Amino acid sequence: MSRLIVISNRVSVPNAAGAAGAQGGLAVALNSALREHRGIWFGWSGQETAEFTGHLDMQRNDGVTTATIDLEPQDIEEYYNGYANRTLWPLFHYRIDLTEYDRNFGEGYERVNERFADSVLPLIEPEDLVWVHDYHLLPLGSILRGKGVKNRMGLFLHTPWPPTRLLASLPFHERLVASMLEYDVLGFQTTEWLESFLHYVQKEMGLKVNLDNSIDYKGRRVIARAFPIGIDYAEFSEAAASSEASEAHHRLKSSVRGRKILIGVDRLDYSKGLGERFESFSRFLADHPDMAGKAVLLQIAPPSRGDVASYQQIREDLERKTGHINGAHAEVDFVPIRYVNRGYPRAQLAGFYRAAEVGLVTPLRDGMNLVAKEYVAAQDPEDPGVLILSQFAGAALQLKDALLVNPHSIEHVAETIKRAIDMPLAERKRRHARLLASIRDEDVIHWREQFVKALAGKDREGANASHEATA
Ligand SMILES: O=P(O)(O)OC[C@H]1O[C@H](O[C@H]2O[C@H](CO)[C@@H](O)[C@H](O)[C@H]2O)[C@H](O)[C@@H](O)[C@@H]1O
Ligand SMILES: O=c1ccn([C@@H]2O[C@H](COP(=O)(O)OP(=O)(O)O)[C@@H](O)[C@H]2O)c(=O)[nH]1
């Protein structure tokens, strides 16, 4: 079995103090993948240094070897807060209104990708498979090729891929996409984003896409496919059965004294549709006076990317909105929205999910959304809760037995909350069983195996398997 070199923006050392608190989906998925494969996870430590030295901090924890570098404040500002999270992230989430184009961001992005390449280069051995993650590192493969790396290299994009006309607004978009074609495998969360990408290379670059969705470019064949990411079902089920989970379940249940619980768990990000969600819950309360004082929305929202102005703005907007809605619907002994700006370990989250009759996952745009899958996996199969899921989350292409909603339609989501609360047990069980089967079968291990197989060039005959599974 070939060794894996996994490269992502941030490396989350497993079981490090605080790591379980507010890990994103990528970190959760990769820790589990790396335990299975010997190999190295390389990336930014999350720390800053006055002057970049390229020093590699190598560690081995809980079966995972990590190699990290520190970055200079200017790197972090221009690459992470800048090009990654003020330019690409909003653009890839269809928020052209929030997308900033600044030459310094572009230069910082190139510089840090160069620094990543120079630092990881000595770790790469001839037979290694190189697996790069996400929008922070789109040109890394091309830079590594320029430094003589001949290994098989793949990129998995965790976010959506935007429509061609949106992407065309990005200065130097052609160069960025051309650099991606230096990878051997390009992976997307869903067929929707895959098709957007293929549309771009045909319309903007005049390239031909083969029947198996491969692209011949500069004498090499690039495979483009959908690989929907899953959760670590076995690990999550174990966490859900832990005493930590049952304590969390009990703590939440006893605090609401018989009221229905709706739960949302999201990084505090404008893409997650939290404002629209709160308004939908408020509309539900206004439309159903008989529900007054009988339903609580618990929203867990750990702060994210707090140095970026649009994230500071969404935080302020949500504080105002929560205050307004609670002011309108609260009673002397009751507050309808419990809005919590901190992260919880996933074992506790599992207990909270299980306590909630409704899971509200309503992003305006989301690459996948692992919370939707965790909510289902945490339910009691004999008395499961109902998942309300945005049609604009990548997860909606797989989780068709959820109640799918348009998160922009406050009325529709409000009505769907009522439908979820009133849903008979037999229908809840039927929907839950189907959702659970797909979450269990298409878990993170399946995702990793499919991607690594394609990366190793061993799956030519099954090129469209995942694609069709999500179509
Ligand atoms: O590292 P941060 O800036 O704090 O952000 C956390 C992660 O957010 C994004 O997650 C995406 O990946 C998930 C797993 O594939 C997916 O379910 C979700 O829809 C995506 O938004 C980001 O893409 C990651 O790089 C970050 O680590
Ligand atoms: O307090 C929290 C909030 C979230 N998460 C985890 O963070 C991940 C979020 O992944 P998702 O794909 O839903 O969104 P992302 O944050 O990656 O955009 C999930 O595994 C959550 O369990 C967590 O561990 N603690």
UniProtKB/TrEMBL annotation:
Organism: Novosphingobium soli
Family membership: Belongs to the glycosyltransferase 20 family.
Function: Probably involved in the osmoprotection via the biosynthesis of trehalose. Catalyzes the transfer of glucose from UDP-alpha-D-glucose (UDP-Glc) to D-glucose 6-phosphate (Glc-6-P) to form trehalose-6-phosphate. Acts with retention of the anomeric configuration of the UDP-sugar donor.
Taxonomy of the source species: Bacteria, Pseudomonadati, Pseudomonadota, Alphaproteobacteria, Sphingomonadales
Pathway the protein acts in: Glycan biosynthesis; trehalose biosynthesis
NCBIfam families referenced in this protein's UniProt entry, alphabetically: trehalose_OtsA
EC numbers for this chain: 2.4.1.15
Database matches in Pfam families: Glyco_transf_20
SUPFAM superfamilies per the UniProt record, alphabetical: UDP-Glycosyltransferase/glycogen phosphorylase (SSF53756)
Subunit structure: Homotetramer.
GO molecular function, one term: alpha,alpha-trehalose-phosphate synthase (UDP-forming) activity
Name assigned to this protein: Trehalose-6-phosphate synthase
Catalytic activity of the protein: D-glucose 6-phosphate + UDP-alpha-D-glucose = alpha,alpha-trehalose 6-phosphate + UDP + H(+)
PANTHER family in the cross-refs: BCDNA.GH08860 (PTHR10788:SF106), TREHALOSE-6-PHOSPHATE SYNTHASE (PTHR10788)
InterPro entries: Glyco_trans_20, Trehalose_OtsA
KW Glycosyltransferase (keyword) present: yes
